[in-house]
Amino acid sequence: MSNPFQINGGACVAMTGKNCVAIACDLRLGMQSLTISNNFPKVFSFSSPTTSPSTPAASTPTVYLGLTGLATDINTVHDTLRYKTNLYRLREERSISPKTFAQLISTSLYEKRFGPWFVSPVVAGLDGKTGDPFICGFDSIGCIDYAKDFIVAGTADDQLFGTCEGLWEEGLGPDELFETISQALLSAVDRDALSGWGAYVYVIEKDKVTKRLLKGRQD
Q1: What is the C-alpha to C-alpha distance for residues 124 and 122, in angstroms, rounded to an integer?
Q2: Alpha carbons 75 and 127: distance in angstroms, whole number
Q3: How many CB atoms lie within 10 A of CB 83?
Q4: Which pLDDT belongs to residue 128?
Q5: Which of 144, 137, 143 is nearest to 23 (CA)?
Q6: What is the pLDDT of residue 49?
Q7: Angle in degrees, CA 218, 66, 86, rounded to 5
Q8: How far apart are CA 118 and CA 25, in angstroms?
Q9: Which whole-number Å values give the CA distances from 77 to 59, 67, 69, 166, 208, in the listed order?
Q10: Which residue from 12, 18, 172, 178 has the fewest beta carbons nearer than 10 Å?
Q11: Residue 194 above 90 pLDDT?
Q12: What is the pLDDT of residues 104-147, one digit of tens each?
């Protein structure tokens, strides 16, 4: 029987920098070795726009979620977390912070531990008050893996560990972080038949988020 985490392929990586954080994913959707689409992004924003004039944009937490695994479960988990974060925003009258969002994901996955979702979430964001970068990963039943450098997930995770270990350095600026995460992801997916076909990279800073499209090999 095929591993459900590898049926549709995909790769995701998050990295920290100096007062910034980046998250990137590939664009391939496949059915094992058969490629179905080259436009299946796996990173989603859970940040809310600032609506109150008394709340500066810099104090609003920025949260992004990357999901790899079974494509149907990716859509289900995304919709479920979107619903829960909207309820949180209505109840608390504030945006959810990255650390709170990580706990929400953990409890949501643990609720399904007897019939788990086949996804490997990656969270990246900046704290709204301190501006500190935050990244973490999860297993399929919600155990949180905190990191100070990088988090990888997907079918290219072994390759990503190698490229990230070789390229990441402490204290990277936004431009350096973009170059590092882009090179790490493209080098890794070129060595994995189940991921690749381009990528999206999000570089998150205190006052802006930069999204870039990377063109990768289409074979």
Answers
A1: 7
A2: 26
A3: 10
A4: 85
A5: 137
A6: 62
A7: 135
A8: 17
A9: 27, 9, 11, 32, 26
A10: 18
A11: yes
A12: 999 999 999 999 999 999 999 999 888 899 999 999 999 999 99
- What is the identity of the amino acid at 38? N
> What are 20's two structure tokens?
């910034």
| Residues paired with residue 200 on neighbouring β-strands, in sequence order | 25, 213
Q: What order of strands is seen across the sheet that includes strand 133-138?
A: 43-45, 62-69, 119-126, 133-138, 144-147
Residues belonging to the chain:
219
pLDDT digits 0-9 by tens, 14-62: 999 999 999 999 999 999 989 999 999 999 999 876 544 444 455 578 9
Angle between helices 174-189 and 157-167 (to 10 degrees): 140
